[in-house]
């Protein structure tokens, strides 16, 4: 079983600290959004939510800040913030962040073990069993027949993982997959009486195991 190096956070600190001097905010050369040119004439959104939102951000040095305008770029897997109408990138990557969206707070944790699956994972359910989602967006480019125009569209790829006792396993959204990944909870999963079909159903199932 693979182990996963995750910055696990049950609740973000409520206090704001000054950013440590080693933490650097990097703007692009002209202060424009870092990904502006690439995302022109694009069908679909490269962001988790298009709007700039309030956030709580836990830095790599464990300090917490509360920037007013943050956006998560899911194509580049980068957290951006806006200040004085300029867009900046957090560098190094932050340990975790919570976006205050119109549909509620959404928390993301950094998995950084040096492989291709490193990046931000959404924490769907917390506790002794954690349910995580990696939602990766990519840009697909297609050219019509006998056309010089290139159409760019956003495609999404979702993967789910359970984390228990320090071990990570990928799961599908079906009961058998959860049974195979979490044998210690065989009885609870087998006897779970609620409907299991959508993502939210498995979020509730995982929460019931904690």
Short description:
This is S9 family peptidase. The protein is mainly beta and 210 residues long.
Instruction: Please tell me the overall pLDDT.
Output: 82
Oligomeric state as shown: single chain
Approximate helicity band = 10-25%
The main β sheet shows up as: 9 strands, mixed
Low-confidence segments: 1-24, 28-33
Tell me what the structure shows:
The protein has 210 residues and is mainly beta. It has one domain (24-208). It is 10% helix and 40% strand. Strands 2, 3, 4, 8, 9, 10, 11, 12 and 13 form a nine-stranded mixed β-sheet that branches. Strands 1-7-6-5 form a four-stranded antiparallel β-sheet, with no helix packed on it. The longest helix is centred in the last third of the chain and has 10 residues, at 199-208.
Topology:
Blueprint: E1 24-27, E2 42-43, E3 55-58, E4 64-65, E5 70-73, E6 78-83, E7 86-91, E8 96-101, E9 104-111, E10 119-125, E11 129-143, E12 150-164, E13 167-171, H1 175-181, H2 186-190, H3 199-208
Parallel strand pairs: 2-12
Antiparallel strand pairs: 1-7, 3-4, 3-8, 5-6, 6-7, 8-9, 9-10, 10-11, 11-12, 12-13
Keywords: Signal
Signal peptide: 1-21
Protein name: S9 family peptidase
Properties at a glance:
S9 family peptidase, 9-stranded mixed β-sheet, 210 residues, mainly beta, disordered N terminus, 4-stranded antiparallel β-sheet, 3 helices, signal, 13 strands
């Amino acid at each position: 079983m693979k182990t996963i190096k995750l910055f696990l956070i049950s609740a973000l600190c409520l206090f704001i600290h000054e950013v440590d001097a080693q933490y650097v905010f990097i703007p692009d050369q002209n202060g424009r959004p870092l990904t502006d040119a690439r995302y022109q004439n694009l069908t679909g959104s490269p962001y988790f939510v298009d709007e700039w939102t309030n956030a709580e951000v836990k830095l790599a040095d464990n300090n917490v800040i509360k920037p007013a305008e943050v956006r998560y770029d899911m194509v580049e897997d980068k957290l951006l913030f806006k200040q004085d109408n300029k867009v900046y990138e957090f560098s190094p990557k932050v340990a975790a962040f919570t976006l205050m969206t119109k549909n509620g707070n959404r928390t993301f944790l950094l998995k950084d073990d040096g492989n291709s699956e490193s990046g931000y994972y959404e924490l769907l359910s917390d506790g002794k069993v954690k349910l995580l989602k990696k939602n990766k967006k990519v840009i697909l480019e297609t050219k019509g027949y006998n056309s010089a125009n290139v159409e760019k569209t956003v495609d999404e790829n979702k993967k789910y993982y359970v984390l228990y006792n320090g071990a990570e396993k990928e799961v599908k959204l079906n009961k058998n997959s959860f049974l195979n990944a979490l044998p210690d909870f065989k009885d609870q999963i087998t006897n779970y009486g609620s409907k299991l079909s959508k993502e939210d159903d498995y979020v509730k199932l995982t929460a019931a195991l904690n």
